[in-house]
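Reviewers of the previous submission asked for a worked example of the structure-prediction workflow described in the proposal, so we include one complete record here. The input consisted solely of the amino acid sequence. No template or homolog information was supplied to the procedure at any stage.
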Amino acid sequence: MRKINHIGIPTDKEQSAEIYLEGIKCYITDFNESPNKIEWLRFEDGSDFPELIQKSAHIAYEVENLEEELKGKNLLVEPFDSNENLTIAFIEEEGAPIELMHFH
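From that input alone, the workflow returned the following structure tokens.
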């Protein structure tokens, strides 16, 4: 079962309190600090993240079993550990990027 966690919106405008993620060449904001759970993403030129994620808003869901959620899906970004408690992956559904978050 999926539970909505946040909405990610790409932007080309600098946001206050951005965090730089060197591995994906992207500045992000902390969606936990947003009353509407918005994560702003500002990608640098040369980012390896798929264009669909760089250009389209995404919905992020918490999932109980990431492996099961990925079966038969169009994978955009392979699962990776965001931190010691969180593994995420991106898929495409209905033409939109979807972030799947597994807390452990």
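The chain has a mean pLDDT of 97. We consider this example representative of the routine output the project will generate in years two and three.
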